[in-house]
Amino acid sequence: MTLPVLGAHTFGFAWDCVAEDAIERLAAAGYRTIQLMATPPHFDPWVQDAARTRRIRALIERHCLSLLALDLASSDINLASPSQHVVDFAVSSYVATIDRAAELGARWICVGSGRRHALLAKANDRLMVSFRDAFARIYDKAERAGVPVILENHPQGLLASAADITRFLDAEGYAGMPVIYDVANAVAIGEDPVEGLRALWPRLGIVHLSDSPKGQWRHDPIGSGEIDFAAIAALLRQRAYEGRIVLEILSDQPLKDIDEGAAILKRQGLAFSLAG
Question: Residue 119: pLDDT above 90?
Answer without folding.
Answer: no
